[in-house]
Amino acid sequence: MPHVPPTLDADAVRTWSSLALTALGRAREDIDAINVYPVADGDTGTNLYLTAEAAAQAVEDAFAVDPPSLADAVRAYAHGALIGARGNSGTILAQLLRGMAEVLAAGPVAGQGDAQTAGQAGGGAGAGTGEAGRRLADALARAAESAYEAVAHPVEGTMLTVATAAARAAGTAGEGAVAVAWSAYDAARTALEKTPGQLGVLGRAGVVDAGGCGVVAVLGALWQALSGRDLDPEPVRGPAVPVQPDPCEQDAGADGPGYEVLFLLEAQDEPVELLRERLDALGDSLVVVGGEGLWNVHVHVDDPGAAVEAGIEAGRPYRIRITHFADQRRAALPERVQRAVVAVVPGEGLAGLCAEAGATCVLARPGEPPAPAELLDAIRRAHAREVVLLPNDAELRHTAAGAAERARAEGVRVAVIPTRSAVQGLAALAVHDPDGSFDEDVVTMTSAAGATRYGELAVAERQSFTSAGICQAGDVLGLIDGDVALIGDELTATAEAVLARMLGSGGELVTLVLGPEVPEALADRLEAYVRERHLAVDTVVYQGGRHSAPLLIGVE
User: Fold this and answer.
1) What residues contact 35, with CB distance under 8 A and at least 6 apart?
2) Where are the strands (E) in 407-547, listed by range?
3) CA–CA separation, 142 vs 23, rounded Å?
4) What is the pTM of this model?
5) What does the pLDDT read at residue 116?
């Protein structure tokens, strides 16, 4: 970490800019992957990073000759972001920094030298007295306000919402800039988690707002710079692979205007107001940031020439960038592979195991079976001409069939192998041959799954009638091929009894998948049992991870 200053001064701004750039660089690809609004063009993380890079360089340039004042440092930070802003998110970030600069550069932050002790919320040494904290809170409030002003049609569930939540929390925080920064960061994280419920496109994609992730990263860096403490990277919530636009909607203009236009503009305030009106009538996602004769203009339109002409009438546009969304999407879209496997897996450990084998995974949580739309989304994410679908649960066969039918309507060849347990899915995946013919591969995988008997241990939640008799709450149930075969009162003995019955009809390989709370000693006991009683049988053990059953058993 760079040198951490103890006060809210120019050195703090320098450290903040450096840490923000590092945080956005670390999260860049993950943020790109969840970019679905306003356009699913997969570049929000990159745009935020490039904007922060230009801003940080401007701060470094300000330090090149003589140490700058706080006012000079924050102005440089905001100006660098304005000059280098990329995309919708980068332009809004530039305005957020400009809003902060308006307040922080207005005069000295009083009481800088009187460091104070902050409590748990922010922790460590403070960054000045209450006056410094109030000034920072005012700066964050002005940042959110100015960002809303810059966007022609603000939408909730975006980085604007996250920034506003941060500003509100900062206004009610304790004294000291450290406490204010922490409150803003913590509130931004909470607001980010709520964005899928505020903006439908995020909820449908199962992601948080990409631009909001950038706001959280920048505020986290601010707290680090003022507190001198490290911060664990905030995970980006979203799918493991980039969210791609619907394959049926790849043409320009399918979801809105076909072009993104950005340019810097030298103009006075009055012509810029007229420019806003003209561009607002031409398209959407209009953001105009800046002031004092220099502006950064961003808009999505179908007629980029008209947008540039409007800029010429308002002043002198330069650094003009025009992006055709259809070309950008095609460039970002990975080449379609010939064949892929999509597997439903009951456990994070199994998901990792199957992903390493090349499968696209859908995690099934207890009591929350995936819907057809989730399986269809996984088929789309696999981005293959041919897909083998492993439901790994007898209850999901109709769900899988429905998803497969919809995928076939989109031109994907799909075969559903009726795997009834994750261990059958593992057996099928082990013989998968992506280079062979599709039909032969399906037959081979189906045969391997069908030749695998499956068992499971579960704990009864209540008294119930089963095929093995009446069980009580807390009893250990031993299931074989989906039916309760025996009821026990202890995990290890029941597991051994189930395994003995399954091996009674022969077998060459035993697969054990342990749940998250099952001791390793259970696997050791079962492996020893197999070695002593069935010399020709091999055993493999996997960790099922969170959401998996206490024990899955496969016998091939």
Assistant:
1) 41, 42, 43, 44, 45, 210, 243
2) 413-416, 453-459, 464-466, 469-471, 476-480, 483-488, 509-514, 538-543
3) 23
4) 0.56
5) 34
Phi-psi region of 79 (alpha: psi -120 to 50; beta: other; left: phi over 0): alpha
Neighbours of 141 (CB within 10 A): 20
- Which residue, chain included where needed, has tokens 């995988």? 445
Give every residue of the chain whose pLDDT is below 70, as ranges: 1-6, 107-129, 234-255, 326-335, 547
Quickly tell me which residue has 């051994």 as its tokens. Answer: 496
- The Cβ of residue 297 has, within 10 Å, a number of other Cβ atoms equal to 28
Distance CA 182, CA 173 (A): 9
Instruction: Give the pairing type, strands 360-363 and 337-345.
Output: parallel
Going across the sheet that includes 259-266, the strands are 283-291, 294-301, 259-266, 316-324
Pair 214, 93: CB distance under 8 Å: yes
Enter the tokens of residue 200. 């439908």
Helix/strand/coil (H/E/C) assignment for every residue in 162-188: HHHHHHHHHHCCCCCHHHHHHHHHHHH
Taking the C-alpha atoms of residue 135 and residue 109, their distance in angstroms, rounded to an integer, is: 7
CB 455 within 8 Å of CB 479: yes
**What is the C-alpha to C-alpha distance for residues 94 and 84, in angstroms, rounded to an integer?**
9
CB atoms within 10 A of CB 445: 25
Q: Which residue has the tokens 């990409």?
A: 210
Instruction: Give me the residues paired with residue 339 across strands.
Output: 386
Residue 127 has what pLDDT? 37
Phi first, then psi: what are they for 554, rounded to 5°? Answer: -125, 140
Identify the pLDDT of residue 36: 82
Q: What DSSP assignment string belongs to 86-118? A: -HHHHHHHHHHHHHHHHHHTSS--TTTT---B-
